[in-house]
Amino acid sequence: MTTLTDRYLAATLRSVPAPRREEIATELRASIEDMIEGRSAGGQDTATAEREVLTELGNPAQLAARYADRRLQLIGPTYYLAWERLLKLLLSFVPAVVGVLVGLVEATDGKNPGGAVGAGIAAALQVVVQIAFWVTLVFAMIERTNTALNLPEWTVDQLPDVRADRQITLTDTAAAIGWLVLVIAYLPLQHFHSFVPASDGATCRSSTRRCGASGCRS
Amino acid sequence: MVSDDVLRTHLQELRRGTVVVASLVALRRPDYGYALLQRLTDHGFPVEANTLYPLLRRLEEQGLLTSEWNTEESRPRKFYRTSEEGESMLRRLLDDLAAVQTSMTGLIEGADR
After folding, report:
1. Is B53 in contact with A27 (Cβ distance < 8 A)?
2. Best mutation site among A27, A28, A39 for testing chain B: the one with the most B CBs within 10 Å?
3. Option in A30, A38, A67 nearest B75 (CB)
């Protein structure tokens, strides 16, 4: 019959490096039995003592991490700032560029020019998720393997200029460019698709052929 | 009034390093995990079992402790003992602990005036 202690040991050893597993198992079992004995000597029944001892030792995964000297974090302080900077840099322009390109391609030679804006936004969102996932995965692996990145040390020369009269942040710039690109993208797009309902002939701006397709009877 | 959480965090920070020093001192006399835990607790160094057991292994890997299995008793126990390397590092640590105490005393006396 497996006892709680057996199950606790199995759960702990699952994530401890294999070569040391056997030794840690023997030692930890003896320690747990010592602790249970210490408590039952005080008049407690063994089953309660066992429960209390294992509760005191805490989550087996956490104990195993301590044995393996493994940090319980995805990205630690060593790499966090580099991760954050790279992520912000990539997210500031890549999704917008991809979104606009996809939108333009869809608008100029797609069969459904009306869906161009939607397709562009969908592509941009997908790129956001992809970038966030891959950058984080790579950094998590660097953290796990403790790879040295050899990043240049911070120096005072890196301090950004502060000008009181004209402060334009990267976000402002990115937003301004993003809007500009969207407006420009709208210009070719409107040739292919009217955003005004085509039920009234007078408001139909598209060519007759396309109007016919969308039900315009001018 | 400082909240209990803040106080506990600072006390924990203050005590963290002393567990290693206390263990190295205590293990000048060889002992196994649970007995060491009891001895440290009795001498005013309360330490969690899930901190101490992995710590002993880490100190052993760093060469500061040596170990030996004792299979004569009812269950096999791993006895740790402070190694020569551990002893020389311990002396440095104890010196530093005394230096901290001296500096603190000086600072307190200086601030009083």
Report:
1. yes
2. A27
3. A30
A30 touches chain B (CB under 8 A): yes
The answer to whether A31 contacts B76, with C-beta atoms less than 8 Å apart, is no
Domains and CATH numbers, chain B: 4-112 (1.10.10.10)
Q: Which residue of B has its CA nearest to A31?
A: B34
- Quote the strand ranges of A122-172, DSSP E: none
Same domain for A125 and A24, yes or no, is no
Tokens representing A157 are 């020369």
Residue A158: inside a domain: no
Residues A63, A105, single domain; the answer is no
ipTM reported for the complex surpasses 0.90: no
Residue percentage of chain A with pLDDT more than 90: 40
Cα A85 from Cα A181, distance rounded (Å): 25
Which residues on adjacent β-strands are paired with residue B66?
A: B81
Alpha-carbon distance of A193 to A111, in angstroms, equals 11
pTM (two decimals): 0.72
Enclosing domain of residue A111: 77-150+166-213
